[in-house]
Amino acid sequence: xxxxxxxxxxxxxxxxxxxxxxxxxxxxxxxxxxxxxxxxxxxxxxxxxxxxxxxxxxxxxxxxxxxxxxxxxxxxxxxxxxxxxxxxxxxxxxxxxxxxxxxxxxxxxxxxxxxxxxxxxxxxxxxxxxxxxxxxxxxxxxxxxxxxxxxxxxxxxxxxxxxxxxxxxxxxxxxxxxxxxxxxxxxxxxxxxxxxxxxxxxxxxxxxxxxxxxxxxxxxxxxxxxxxxxxxxxxxxxxxxxxxxxxxxxxxxxxxxxxxxxxxxxxxxxxxxxxxx
Amino acid sequence: xxxxxxxxxxxxxxxxxxxxxxxxxxxxxxxxxxxxxxxxxxxxxxxxxxxxxxxxxxxxxxxxxxxxxxxxxxxxxxxxxxxxxxxxxxxxxxxxxxxxxxxxxxxxxxxxxxxxxxxxxxxxxxxxxxxxxxxxxxxxxxxxxxxxxxxxxxxxxxxxxxxxxxxxxxxxxxxxxxxxxxxxxxxxxxxxxxxxxxxxxxxxxxxxxxxxxxxxxxxxxxxxxxxxxxxxxxxxxxxxxxxxxxxxxxxxxxxxxxxxxxxxxxxxxxxxxxxxxxxxxxxxxxxxxxxxxxxxxxx
Lengths: 277, 299
Hints:
heterodimer, A: two-stranded antiparallel sheet, 2 strands, B: Rossmann fold, Alpha-Beta Plaits, four-stranded antiparallel beta sheet, 13 strands
């Protein structure tokens, strides 16, 4: 297993483009800390974002994982191109000739994705922990370590999304087209399937079906945290609307994404196995 | 003798096209094999199948007696297919380290092999800066990293300039001299003739011949003759039971043997019959002539 990871590491780390992207990914996560520095200074009104309670435990877990998961597109580019390049350089063929089995090849890619997701999750955890310790109003251990489910959800979301990218890379074989396909698929889910089902079977059926689609189910893992923020809530309540939203991470949602991950990895393997190179 | 590769009734179809048809042959340890065939005769497809990159349609093959799975067996094989494939953004050393990881062999042979193919001074250059000849030599170095039981080369001199071709051939000869089994696919016959002891000949995916080079045709060779009294010579040859067809071209008479006969006894016979020769050569058909006659006859 270590060998497979090392193989992939050599391939990735020696490539300038992917090295720059990986480093900037982590730098950007680190930059979340800069939100704390946002200050509005309009005459008598001084507004500091960090003082508004957005870094309070446990809310910070929700907010930071949500922001960080927006950055996953960076690594998606790396994954898609690392897969597509194996095809265009014909190194996939050479790897197999050199004695890597097709199973090992997929395993080395998946392990890389998995390892990257683990590192990424740990990184988000540490950044959020430090930020929280600086700015949170509550620092009791029991509060700090509550709602850690968001980190699990973040991790599952990354693994699922990256597996999807891996599959697209193998399916399409060209990085630009694979990324294009990703965007098209997003449109298919959100415009095509959503409204098709809505039109055929009504709104409720549409909502149910959407839950099971790959990108939508990944998106559902961590719901947007903005409306949960107290300042926003009180503002909306003044307008007369009421909030009744479920922000928690559900096991069923994790299971759906887990299934998609398994399906994508299996399909990648099946596709590779079937193809003549 | 130890068998390295056995191919049994192997068939590969690409849609309606049959690229390899019911192919069987054995590769024994210590020999140098050539797979010969015109372009599109299924050489690369056959190699692709035994190297795990092309799926077979029917039949089977086994490495080293079939006791280990293909990808494990391939770690004991060194192979270069068509074009050298490496990561363009990595240096020679980095690429070879990766191959060592895949083949699970120690990295201490890298310098030695680079030295052998004459790339040691360019070891830290990126692969994409190499010329085609250098790329091909790096591929050979890479294939040798595990000191393979068998080296498979598919058209190793394709697209190279004369100097590059010469370098590659020298390297192949050096490796063959060390006793490594080699399987060389090529359509360049002189290339195969110079190094191979055995050949497998393919045409349109079918095997025409497999075995030692010298037994390729049941041919006894032919005589090239010249004499002042040509009509007498022609009559003599025409009446002689040992000769098949006789050709007369530009004053040179070519008589093809149907059975074994040495030059001195022919000379003796002719002299007794009062015919004196000005030119007498006995020749075996070259691989090229044999190959052409094999591939043409079976049309």
